[in-house]
Design brief:
Helix content is 5%, strand content 41%. It is built from one helix and 19 strands.
Length: 171
């Protein structure tokens, strides 16, 4: 991972750099078991043709309240499977310009949310989004937490088994 002309070998270092408002260019595929967390400032992540593969049971990327992340470039973010996984959970602000985002099923082989808006603000300008399994007939490709303010704005992108105009089961 290359950020500010430095090479990082630890995802904790990457989270620290992204939370300080810098740009990270992914140089190789990476496996992570804890979320890449953006907690403050405006940061950018270029997938640069590579994959972030979540081997844990939570989010691959977490944008905390006060954090803002723009994701671009060809590449993949796989949220993992086997738990309450997501490709990205958003409490702050997320802007997706491109990339391939997906998530596998939970421990009971039911669907997980690909992009989970947890009171934050999401803008989708491009990219491909999918979840491998449905939950009660719904493919939660974009999911807004029920009863929680926040927005999901779709300006472009490809959504597998999901029409953003239909919302989710509640919103």
């Amino acid at each position: 991972i290359n950020g500010d002309q430095r090479i990082f070998t630890s995802f904790n270092d990457v989270s620290s750099v992204l939370s300080s408002g810098q740009t990270i260019n992914l140089l190789n595929d990476v496996n992570i078991s804890e979320p890449l967390t953006i907690s403050v400032s405006s940061s950018s992540l270029s997938l640069n043709g590579n994959t972030i593969n979540n081997t844990g049971t939570t989010s691959a990327i977490l944008v905390e309240t006060g954090g803002e992340l723009t994701i671009s470039g060809i590449g993949k973010v796989y949220g993992g499977h086997g738990g309450n996984n997501t490709a990205v959970t958003v409490k702050g602000t997320l802007i997706v310009k491109s990339g391939d985002f997906s998530v596998g099923p939970d421990a009971e082989n039911a669907g997980n949310s690909c992009i989970y808006c947890y009171g934050g603000n999401v803008t989708i300008k491009g990219g491909t989004f999918s979840t491998e399994k449905d939950w009660n007939g719904w493919y939660y490709v974009l999911n807004q937490l029920n009863g929680n303010p926040g927005t999901i704005k779709v300006e472009g992108g490809t959504f597998v088994n999901y029409n953003p105009a239909n919302g989710d089961d509640n919103l």
